[in-house]
Each structure stands twice: as structure tokens, then as C-alpha cells.
């Protein structure tokens, strides 16, 4: 009987989650949770790293999934935070499309090139938003933050 109770509770939670997901993100109500931009960008950073790891391992299904999640994070940030210029998001379209094509072709070299372009696009966005101290890089290892530079850049 306890198992049935847990199953009903999980089913109810799933229904509530589906209802919440269907709500309009553009006009959150006072009661609706809106993630902080930093939280969305942290999720995007993890997706960026996982995309690289999946490509390196040639797990193309996982790479495609992570790319989709990364795109969703960027769209969510643009929809929820009007201070992000549309041009910052649209300039990422070409490298995201290149990454998608590389994954479809199962071409690790092309994916690495696309990730380089995507990473530079992220950094260009950070610079345009006066956040040049947030510097992404193409990952070099599996460390948790292997896709970010932490040493300060010398000021010109």
C-alpha cells in the first residue's frame, strides 16, 4: 500500500510540473518562480561542458541532447531578461547550427570547431554586457569548471 501512495504522489507531482511548464514564461505572475540570470547561465555553462565531453566520447545522442538543452537555456535567458540584446542571442545561431550539423555528421573535429565559435560568441556577449570577467573556454579536462578561465586578465 505504501508503494501505491508514493506512485500517486509522484503522478500528481508530474501533472503539476506539466501544468507549470505550460504557463507563459513571458509574463510570470507574482507566484511564478523566475530563475536568476546567473542560474540560467550556470546551467548553460554545464551544458556547454557536457556537450564537449559527449562529443569527445563520441556519444552523439548525448551531444544532441546537451545541445538542445543549451539552446533552451539561451532562449530562456533571452525571453526572461529583456536587458540581453537580441543580437547577442542571434549571433550564437550560426555556431549552434554548426554544432548541430557536426553532431548529425558524427564529426568530432567539426564539433570542436563549432564549440570554439560558440565559446567566442559567449565571451562576446559577456563583454557587451560589461561582464568581460566571465571568460569561457573550450574545455581541456573533465573538471567541474574546466570550461571557464578564472585568472584575471591584465587590464589594457
Give an account of the 3D structure.
Helix content is 65%, strand content 3%. It has a two-stranded antiparallel ribbon. It has one domain (35-149): Four Helix Bundle (Hemerythrin (Met), subunit A) (Up-down Bundle), CATH 1.20.120. It is mostly helical and 156 residues long. Helix 2 (37-56) runs antiparallel to helix 6, helix 3 (60-80) packs antiparallel against helix 5 (93-105) and helix 5 (93-105) runs antiparallel to helix 6. Residues 1-25 have low confidence and may be disordered. It is globular. Keywords: Signal. Residues 1-20 form the signal peptide. It comes from Bradyrhizobium centrolobii. This is Cytochrome C.
| Coarse shape | globular
Q: Could you tell me the CATH topology label.
A: Four Helix Bundle (Hemerythrin (Met), subunit A)
The SSE string, one letter per element, is HHHHHHEE
Characterize the biggest β-sheet.
2 strands, antiparallel
Strand content: under 5%
Structural class by sheet pairing and helices: mainly alpha
Taking strands numbered 1, 2, ... along the chain, how are they ordered across the largest sheet?
1-2
Q: Give the N-terminus to C-terminus distance in angstroms.
A: 69 Å
**Uncertain ranges:** 1-25
Number of domains: 1
Amino acid at each position: 500500500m505504501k508503494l501505491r501512495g508514493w506512485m500517486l504522489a509522484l503522478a500528481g507531482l508530474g501533472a503539476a510540473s506539466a501544468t507549470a511548464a505550460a504557463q507563459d514564461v513571458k509574463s510570470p505572475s507574482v507566484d511564478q518562480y523566475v530563475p536568476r540570470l546567473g542560474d540560467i547561465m550556470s546551467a548553460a555553462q554545464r551544458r556547454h561542458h557536457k556537450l564537449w565531453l559527449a562529443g569527445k566520447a563520441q556519444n552523439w545522442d548525448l551531444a544532441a541532447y546537451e545541445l538542445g538543452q543549451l539552446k533552451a537555456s539561451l532562449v530562456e535567458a533571452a525571453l526572461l531578461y529583456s536587458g540581453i540584446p537580441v543580437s547577442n542571442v542571434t549571433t550564437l545561431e550560426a555556431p549552434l547550427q554548426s554544432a548541430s550539423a557536426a553532431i548529425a555528421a558524427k564529426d568530432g573535429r567539426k564539433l570542436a570547431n563549432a564549440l570554439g565559435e560558440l565559446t567566442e560568441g559567449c565571451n562576446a556577449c559577456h563583454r557587451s554586457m560589461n561582464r568581460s570577467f566571465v571568460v569561457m573556454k573550450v574545455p581541456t579536462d573533465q573538471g567541474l569548471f574546466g570550461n571557464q578561465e578564472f585568472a584575471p586578465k591584465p587590464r589594457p
